[in-house]
Amino acid sequence: MIPTPDLSHLSAKDYDHVYEPAEDTFLLLDALEEDEKELKDLHPSISLEIGPGSGCVSAFIGKILGPSVLYLCSDINPHACTCTRATGTQNKVTLDVINASFASPLTLRLKHAVDIILFNPPYVPTIQEEMSDAQDKCSISGSWAGGMDGMNVTNIFLEHVEELLSERGRFYLVAVAENDVPGIQERMSKLHGLRSDIVLSRRAGREHLFVIRFIRDPSRSKG
After folding, report:
1. Where would a tag sit more exposed on the chain, N or C end, judged by fewer CB atoms within 10 A?
2. Average confidence score pLDDT of the chain
3. What is residue 18's DSSP assignment?
4. How far is CA 138 from CA 57, 99, 113, 122, 199, in A?
5. Rounded distance, CA 209 to CA 124, Å?
6. pLDDT for position 61
7. pLDDT tens per residue, range 23-62
8. HSE on the CB side for 158, CA within 13 Å?
9. Torsion sign across C-alpha atoms 142, 32, 105, 66
């Protein structure tokens, strides 16, 4: 069993600004551990996490894959960037952090080059104004406020996954039942040629959480 990364360096004050790891985080860690052998067999060069928050997930996959991988982390919240760097240092994993929206500054350089993409998005259905305000202010509420169906932020990034993903790459997405998981899977297959499986699912209070794994479907072409 791979231990959860050490987050003892983060304080309650940090969690006033950055999402504290919770059931959705731990489900993603469990999914990555479930795929440990396949991830190692992939011999990845680049891992990209969108919205790392505390840095827990990238530090965890860094423990799985070791120092030969470039671990990129992009977050719009500057506090999250600071915490992610510190978590990498605390766990002896080098995390390269970018304060940006999605992977915008690196999209062209990373075209079809990312072997592992990780995204635990703001998936909670909220009013549109709350989602927009959270994103504009780059605040902690941006880590959960997802708009009307919880998919506003996710939908933007889903349009860029195929162009980032390497030939043998894997994309791990956290979602809840309200996001319409079968609909996400169907859309990514039809529009982007990415087939998918549910790695793990779990109920946590009122939420039914899923981790979806996407890979290229060799029998399908985009469009």
Report:
1. N
2. 91
3. S
4. 20, 10, 27, 12, 30
5. 11
6. 98
7. 999 999 999 999 999 999 999 999 999 999 999 999 999 9
8. 25
9. positive
